[in-house]
Structure formats: C-alpha cells, structure tokens
C-alpha cells in the first residue's frame, strides 16, 4: 500500500478546493463508487459520474467550502480510511459536514489504467449540520 496512504487525504483536499480536474485525476477510469447521505444512496462507475454526484448534487455553485477543518487518514487491512470535516457557507447559513470514506487503489492488473488511482470507494456523509454564530 505504498501509494495509498495519501489518496484519501488528496481526495479530501481536492474536494475542499472544489477541484474537479484534481478529483478526476485521482479516480480510476472504472471506479466502483458508492455513498450514503442522510436522504439518499449514490452510485457511480466512472470519474464523470463521481464528479456529477459531488458537484451537481452534494455541493452546488452557491456552496462555498470555507475550510477543511480536519483530516484523518490511515490504513485498515487492505483498504485506506479517511475522515474529513468541511465548513461550508451558502445563502442558508454556515454548516459543518463530515465524511468518512474507505477506499482502495487499483493495481493495474489485466492491462487496466487504474494503478495508484482510487478504484473502489465507499463514503458516508453526515449531511449539512448548522454552525452557531462564532463556531468555526
């Protein structure tokens, strides 16, 4: 897992910057992506599908990601785990969002172009939790 310890953290940082090309570069051409938010399950099989979920549904144009408040990443058996918190502002207020994810990189076997990229990912999201005035 030499290349994997930074993949989850890199995903969180690209997400916090709303960096679609950066996120796309981290994802294998055939990615098995599933996520759970408070109101819905999400699935995608390619980077474009993941980007549509993240930037057309989870974070809209009016959502400003103010900061990446916390990031924790480590290995778990043959997977990597990453947890991160984002502060988001939009016309409805300021919110804290936490996501936990498990992921694996592709190994490039069978001639696939997925070596060192996220090939499998599961995400659980807290949803938008209101921040009181004065909270970061």
Structure description:
The protein is α+β, with helices and mostly antiparallel strands and 136 residues long. Helices cover 21% and strands 47% of the residues. It has three helices and seven strands, in the order ααββαβββββ. A hairpin with a 2-residue loop joins β1 (27-37) and β2 (40-44). α1 (7-16) runs antiparallel to α2. The longest helix is centred in the middle third of the chain and has 12 residues, at 47-58. The termini are far apart.
Main β-sheet description: 7 strands, mixed
* Share in β-strands: over 45%
Alpha-beta classification: alpha+beta
Task: Name the average pLDDT.
Answer: 90
Shape: globular
Distance between the termini: 34 Å
SSE pattern = HHEEHEEEEE
Query: From the alpha-carbon coordinates, what is the Rg to the nearest angstrom?
Result: 15 Å
- Poorly predicted regions are none
Total number of strands: 7
- The percent range for helix content is 10-25%
Structure, briefly:
With 136 residues, the chain is an alpha+beta fold.
Strand and helix map with partners:
Layout: H1 7-16, H2 20-26, E1 27-37, E2 40-44, H3 47-58, E3 64-76, E4 79-90, E5 93-105, E6 118-125, E7 129-130
Parallel strand pairs: 1-6
Antiparallel strand pairs: 1-2, 3-4, 4-5, 5-6, 5-7
Comma- or semicolon-separated keywords:
136 residues, 3 helices, alpha+beta, globular
């Amino acid at each position: 897992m030499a290349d994997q310890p930074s993949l989850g953290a890199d995903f969180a940082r690209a997400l916090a910057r709303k960096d679609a090309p950066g996120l796309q570069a981290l994802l294998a051409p055939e990615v098995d992506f599933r996520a759970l938010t408070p109101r819905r399950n999400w699935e995608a099989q390619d980077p474009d599908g993941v980007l549509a979920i993240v930037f057309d549904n989870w974070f809209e144009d009016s959502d400003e990601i103010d900061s990446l408040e916390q990031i924790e990443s480590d290995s778990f058996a043959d997977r990597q785990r990453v947890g991160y918190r984002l502060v988001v502002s939009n016309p409805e207020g300021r919110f804290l969002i936490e996501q936990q994810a498990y992921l694996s990189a592709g190994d490039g076997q069978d001639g696939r172009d997925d070596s060192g990229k996220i090939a499998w990912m599961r995400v659980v999201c807290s949803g938008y939790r209101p921040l009181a005035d004065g909270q970061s």
